[in-house]
Amino acid sequence: MNRAADVAVAGFGLLVTAPVLGVAAAAVKLADGGPVIYRQERVGKDGVPFELLKLRTMVVGAESQGAGMAVNEGDSRITRPGGLLRRLSIDELPQLWNVIRGDMSVIGPRPTLAYQVARYTERQRRRLEVKPGLTGWAQVHGRARLPWEQRIELDVWYVENRSPLVDLKILARTPLALFSGTYKGASGGWREPSKPS
Length: 197
Prior knowledge:
Layout: H1 3-32, E1 37-43, E2 49-55, H2 80-87, H3 95-101, E3 105-107, H4 114-117, E4 133-135, H5 148-161, H6 164-178
Parallel strand pairs: 3-4
Antiparallel strand pairs: 1-2
């Protein structure tokens, strides 16, 4: 999608979802009194870092507890409202502001963390040729149910084959994908490679 379309869609999305965001933000605040917005550095187009915005769904300081950056099903660090926000992908709505700011696009590979990008192969780095997106080709083909490498390959396919028609297909399939299981964890389902014994 071009910049004008991104801004139009994201602006409309923020307008329509404002009541939902308001209720969700209040629920996050009332749960434990902590901050409503969770900010995390992710890698954007051409490897440039940016600050990703989400509604906070875990306890304050969760990254230094338990599984760290990974989030497992039934993770005890997830707050009571956080579980519902994750299941419905409501926690991702603040990223509409990332789109308006120009950090992200509506459609593109999901943004990942610097330590993951550092391990990309030359081919996998092609997913950095476009802005990261709210939804993308890998998202509508299985999300976190797919192995990490397969999701990256789907993203690379999108980079090589993107077109208005492909973008329309992604938009049409996104609503169903949203309810087929949340994007698992801040690490995006990443698994550290096994260390040699």
